From TrEMBL:
One Pfam entry name: GcvP2_C
Catalytic activity: N(6)-[(R)-lipoyl]-L-lysyl-[glycine-cleavage complex H protein] + glycine + H(+) = N(6)-[(R)-S(8)-aminomethyldihydrolipoyl]-L-lysyl-[glycine-cleavage complex H protein] + CO2
One biological process term in Gene Ontology: glycine decarboxylation via glycine cleavage system
Key words of the record: Oxidoreductase, Pyridoxal phosphate
Ranges for domain Glycine dehydrogenase C-terminal: 172-291
EC number: 1.4.4.2
Protein name: glycine dehydrogenase (aminomethyl-transferring)
Cellular compartments per GO CC: glycine cleavage complex; mitochondrion
A Gene Ontology molecular function term of the record: pyridoxal phosphate binding
Length: 333
C-alpha cells in the first residue's frame, strides 16, 4: 500500500497503458508539435481529434460542463479546482474547474509526472478557454495544442472500459476505505475535519501536533518509522503543519488496509513509551528510523533498542510466505 494518495498511485490496467506504446499514435503526436502542425496527414489528425473530442464530451457528461480544454498539462496551468471524486461540479453551481486526470482518471503520476489538468467551463465561459494556433489563435497555456497528448488515451480507455456504473463504484471504494481507516485510527490519533455525520471523504488528516509536546515527535518521525514497517511515507503538513494526510485508493484490499492500520497503531504505542518516560525522548526507535541495512548489519550497534525490533517491528515483516502463495492460487478472467 502507498498511502500517499490516489494522485500518486492508482492501479492501472495494462490495457490503459498499451496505447502509449503504439508507434502510429507516437508518430501522430510528433506531428502535432507546433513547428510541424502544417505537415501532418489528415487521417492521423482525424484519428487523434476523434479521441480528443470523445474524451472532452465524456468529461462534459460526467461534470455537467459545456466545454473542456485538454491543453493544460497540470492544474497549475488553470487552478480552478473543485473536488468531489461523486458530486457533479455543475450540480453545486460551479462555473469553472480543472480536473486532475492523474487523480481520478488513472494517468500515472508517481515520480513527479506526467500530469494533465483539463479545464471545464459552462457555456458562457467557453469562448475564454485556452486555444492554439492549430485551432484558433486566442491564447495558449501549453506548447502542444492538446497538452500531454500521448497520455490522454490512458484516461479515455479507462473511462470507456469502466462505464458510468463502474466509475461510480470505483469512486465509492476509496471513500469507504478512508472511512474504514479513520474509524480504526480515531481512538489512537486525533482526526481533523469530519463531516456533519462524523465521516470523512476520500482522504483524512491525522493531527500529530499534540505529540510534539508530549513526546517530541514530528510528522517526519512517524513517516520515517513507517518505512521500517515497509510502507511509503505519508503526505506531511498538507494544509496544516504538524499533520499527516492519509488517502487510500480503490486498489487496496481490506487485509492491506488492516496491515497499514496495525502499523500506525504500533507506532502510536511506541510513542506512548516515550510519553511514559520508559525510553529516551531523543534516542528511541522512532527518532532512529528508518533503519537501513548498512546500519542494521554494522559490526557495532549502539542503539538502546535491539536490531531485531528496529528492523522487524511487526510479524509480517519476518519472511516471505511462498507456501501461502502456492496453496492459495487466484485466477482472473
Amino acid at each position: 500500500m502507498i498511502p500517499l494518495g490516489s494522485c500518486t498511485m492508482k492501479l492501472n490496467a495494462t490495457t490503459e497503458m498499451m496505447p502509449v506504446t503504439w508507434q502510429p499514435l507516437q508518430i501522430c503526436i510528433l506531428l502535432l508539435l507546433p513547428n510541424r502542425h502544417r505537415g501532418f496527414r489528415a487521417t492521423q489528425k482525424n484519428i487523434l481529434q476523434e479521441v480528443f473530442k470523445n474524451l472532452g464530451d465524456i468529461l462534459c457528461t460526467i461534470t455537467g460542463f459545456d466545454s473542456f480544454s485538454l491543453q493544460p498539462n497540470v492544474g497549475a496551468a488553470g487552478e480552478y479546482e473543485c473536488t468531489g471524486g461523486l458530486t457533479s461540479p455543475w450540480w453545486i453551481g460551479v462555473d469553472v474547474c480543472h480536473l486532475n486526470l492523474h487523480k481520478t482518471f488513472c494517468v500515472p503520476h508517481g515520480g513527479g509526472g506526467p500530469e494533465i489538468g483539463p479545464i471545464g467551463v459552462k457555456k458562457h465561459l467557453a469562448p475564454y478557454l485556452p486555444s492554439h494556433p492549430v485551432s484558433k489563435p486566442l491564447g495558449t497555456v501549453s506548447a502542444a495544442p492538446w497538452g500531454s497528448t500521448l497520455i490522454l488515451p490512458i484516461s479515455y480507455t479507462y473511462i470507456a472500459m469502466m462505464g458510468s456504473q463502474g466509475l461510480t463504484y470505483a469512486y465509492n471504494i476509496p471513500i469507504l476505505n478512508a472511512n474504514y481507516l479513520e474509524k480504526r485510527l480515531e481512538s489512537h490519533y486525533p482526526i481533523l475535519f469530519r463531516g456533519v455525520s462524523g465521516t470523512v471523504a476520500h482522504e483524512f488528516i491525522v493531527d500529530l501536533r499534540p505529540l510534539k509536546t508530549s513526546a517530541g515527535i514530528e510528522p517526519e518521525d512517524v513517516a520515517k518509522r513507517l518505512i521500517d514497517y515497509r510502507f511509503y511515507g505519508l503526505t506531511m503538513s498538507c494544509s496544516i503543519p504538524g499533520t499527516l494526510m492519509i488517502e487510500p485508493t480503490e486498489s487496496e484490499s481490506k487485509a492491506e488496509l488492516d496491515r497499514f492500520c496495525d502499523a500506525l497503531i504500533s507506532i502510536r504505542q511506541e510513542i506512548a513509551e516515550i510519553e511514559k518516560g520508559t525510553v529516551d525522548i531523543n534516542n528511541n526507535v522512532i527518532k532512529g528510523a528508518p533503519h537501513p541495512p548498512q546500519l542494521l548489519m554494522a559490526d557495532k550497534w549502539t542503539k538502546p533498542y535491539s536490531r531485531e525490533y528496529a528492523a522487524y517491528p511487526a510479524p509480517w515483516l519476518r519472511r516471505v510466505d511462498n507456501v501461502y502463495g502456492d496453496r492459495n492460487p487466484s485466477a482472473t478472467t
